[in-house]
């Protein structure tokens, strides 16, 4: 059946979200049609606040409402170690696993099929941070899949001329899986079992 234009517009907008198909978008839309106006306004305000208040930290590229982010500004963190992850959601996972060093978020991974190359990531900013001095270890915690491994190699090459130890998390995280779906115990094991990466051949 043909829906009113405003209903169709919301369905199409919801379909842009990851994992949301037409049927799910329709269910969400009709749920919102039955919801109290206060609930709709709260949702609308939350979405607007997200766009207005949340930005990438200029140092680590994690999401925050201040700059630098609370982790970079925390003087109790181990500033000699930086954990490199693909996405901001990976930071939350490693926080639960007990990591007390700093982070660097690449904002993606190398994927030539999607047109994403190493220069599109924040690798240059990571190199600049390490070049400033004081960092003894960079731990690569990209996803344990083809794209994550390729990304880790690009980061390793970029850091090869610098006096810093580059390690990779152990395979406590299953090959082919994503960091965000790993539990805290698995991530803690991966951190404790990390190994030094060989230099570029």
Describe it for me?
This protein has eight helices and seven strands, in the order αααββαβαβαβαβαβ. It has 201 residues and is α/β, with parallel strands linked by helices.
Number of strands: 7
CATH class of the largest domain: Alpha Beta
Class by alpha and beta content: alpha/beta
Q: Helical content, roughly? A: 40-55%
Sheet of most strands: 5 strands, mixed
Count of separate structural domains: 2
How widely separated are the two ends? 61 Å
Strand content: 5-15%
Radius of gyration: 20 Å
Shape: elongated
Mean pLDDT, as a whole number?
91
Gist of the model:
Helix content is 42%, strand content 13%.
Name the descriptors.
single chain; 201 residues; alpha/beta; Helicase, Ruva Protein, domain 3; Dna Topoisomerase Vi A Subunit, Chain: A, domain 2; 2 domains; five-stranded mixed sheet
Strand and helix map with partners:
Blueprint: H1 5-14, H2 22-34, H3 37-53, E1 55-56, E2 63-64, H4 70-73, E3 78-85, H5 88-96, E4 101-105, H6 123-131, E5 137-140, H7 146-158, E6 165-168, H8 184-192, E7 195-196
Parallel strand pairs: 3-4, 3-5, 5-6
Antiparallel strand pairs: 1-2, 6-7
Helix pairs in contact: 1-2
